[in-house]
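ok posting inputs for the adenosine-5'-diphosphate job
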Amino acid sequence: RPLTMALANETTRVVSQFDFSDQDVNVHVHEFLQQMSDGLEADGTSLSQIPTYVTGVPNGTEKGLYLAVDLGGTNFRVCSITLNGDTTFNLTFNKVAIPKELMVAKTAKELFAFLAKHIELVLREHHAEHFESHVRRRNTASTPLGYRDELIFRLGFTFSFPVKQLGINKGELIRWTKGFDIPDAIGKDVCALLQDEIDRLHLPVKVAALVNDTVGTLMARSYTSTGKHRSILGGIFGTGTNGAYIEKTEKIKKPIEGEYDTSTSEMVINTEWGSFDNQLNVLPSTPWDKALDAQSVNPGIQMFEKRVSGMFLGEIVRLTIVDMMKNEKTSLFKDLNSSFNDLWTTTNISPQSGMFKPWGLDSAIMSVAASDNSPELSTLRQELENTLHVYNPSLEDAQAFKAVANAVARRAARLSAVAIGAVVLQSGKVDDPDEEVLDIGVDGSLVEHYPFFRDMIHEALAVIDGIGPEGAKKIRIGIAKDGSGVGAALIALVAQRME
Ligand code: ADP
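and the output
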């Protein structure tokens, strides 16, 4: 019993280190606004504030048939999307795993030829008639591709690697990530690489837009959110975190190199907010945040993301719990029938458990912890046993785990509110009586599946100076469904209008 009492005290002590007060929220919003503004002035700042050349968001009346492709990791996805013009859409979806050897091909051509071939397969499968009619008309038409312009599919290309964007359908690859390594592609325009291979197959397809997934989320949400409210921000809270919002072009002081439509006086900005506060002026740093950063592949970088997103929250919890287990005065995950000479032999966790491996604790279990409110925490205890190989976790173990997980997630939600709140303030629309709703589209497993994540964000928005409870009521945060495909289609449409 003294051991479990000590555990309760230790848990309280640890949990309090993840407190993020109302005052903290405001200090962070202030800094976030400052760093947003710095990023609009010059390159090389904490927030990159990348101009996307997308100069408007949809209102739900857009119509047409578009293609969207997504290259971002293990799979290549091809969708065709019919926008019905009444905020609804229909979507067909195909995906293919990228062969490992193509991820490290000698030339970019090999990878992009594979992508084009897959686009052809999808066209033949889902748009056979359209495709055949293109082929028949090819010889009689007047465009360089040999197709009538109105019969050419516009394609939005979601490419989730670091790119220097130079136009709505132009961007140079800065570096590969996520296991890809094709040196020959670095510095090249990825849209042109794809277009070349599409042309080689004589497909009636134009790569019309290069799309970042956050911009896609903003566009998709703006199209589907019913009523007259265009969305102001798209945010991702999944493996990583990032946001894109609408900015007045006059506030973008740094040069925008390529051409864009100036008629709207707006442009979508990709904030790259995962790197907010890389110099650590304000972000909270517990010993476990520091340990996580030190063992990461990019120490000192993406400091906001390391406190907010799915890839990192589980690891913060793991590092914290392991530290608490090392405290000999508490009973946490210990076999109380043994002596305490050796932590690893007295613990009631299998040595093979993810609990003892860096990145071994998936943040999904935090959602399980948060949603189990039963007196015995039986679902969570079962999950600890199934996924982390804890033998017979006690109620006290599960309570401590739940408390730590909740504290880490709650801090993440309040930090998310910092980013969202700063963008809301930047929009200048909080006090505008004509703006009844400030709509925000979000996507990602964390915000979608963690219980009450959006409620925790809302609670923190209400304490922000300049927003307050009244302002927070106007803010509507909704999930952007199928964001990547629909958003890319919508950006292709915007691009087509600029042609
Ligand atoms: P991506 O961002 O790669 O497109 P997701 O939005 O599915 O994919 O996010 C995956 C991340 O979300 C992973 O880091 C995973 O640990 C985390 N995750 C998955 N399910 C949950 C959940 N139920 N609760 C909290 N985090 C989750």
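notes: The first strand starts at residue 50 and ends at 51. Residues 395-427 form the longest helix (33 residues).
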